[in-house]
């Protein structure tokens, strides 16, 4: 069987002011990192987005039900990577149904904080089905138009959550988050990002562009550009950048974000590219002989990369950690592999 090369997203923490040490190939200690970043000894991380009911379509025609979503997958893997050394909270809205109950139970079992999860009466979570071909490549079918998360930042219950988010040390969201929140929700998220960064928080963004979630490409471009001005860690997929903005190569992508000090670019089977300050790195992917399902490969990469950086790892070390975790994830069906 032909080998499959894993190459997924990576990320960074801002190199504003004293944070320029991240451009070095030498990793600082955790203590130095926390001191320079002015972060609490145990970083508080909030991931904002959507979790859906996941159906895996099997070869015999049966369906295996679980849960997944890009930011939720990252939250779970990030909590597993950091363990007791972090507080990882998930921010979303669910219904009052049995599936939403089961989601919350699963998240609690994974160690995720649920204080910022809204439960909206009469609503339901979204649903998607994964179909995979013989090489492990995915096709998704979605049912999410009435998902509760669309009102995540517009309900009265959202007010204390919005007030609490700027106090976190790290805020993480994706292009899918932007799409499902809608225009009003995006405006409220943007206000949170501005205040959070003023307080010293670090903002992490995974571009995850899904055209079907947007009314048109111009609406998506406007939303992305608004938030990218307030991002400290950019996790970019080259294919998504090409589809959304028309960038033809990595040079155009890097040139488009001069104010983001560290940008990591996913390029399929090619090396992931990292621009950190004035330096650049190419980090080889991991070769996997048998790919089962590529779902959550990029999400898990992002989690391991961010976890490594929070522990003081260099960009190269972080990327290697991301490739290693992603290589494990794509050898198992579904978004979340069993815990060790």
UniProtKB/TrEMBL annotation:
Source domain of life: Bacteria
Keyword Ligase: no
CDD domains recorded: KdgK (cd01166)
Ranges of residues in domain Carbohydrate kinase PfkB: 44-337
UniProtKB keywords: Kinase, Transferase
SUPFAM superfamilies the UniProt entry points to: Ribokinase-like
Membership in a protein family: Belongs to the carbohydrate kinase PfkB family.
Protein name: 2-dehydro-3-deoxygluconokinase
Originating species: Pseudomonas brenneri
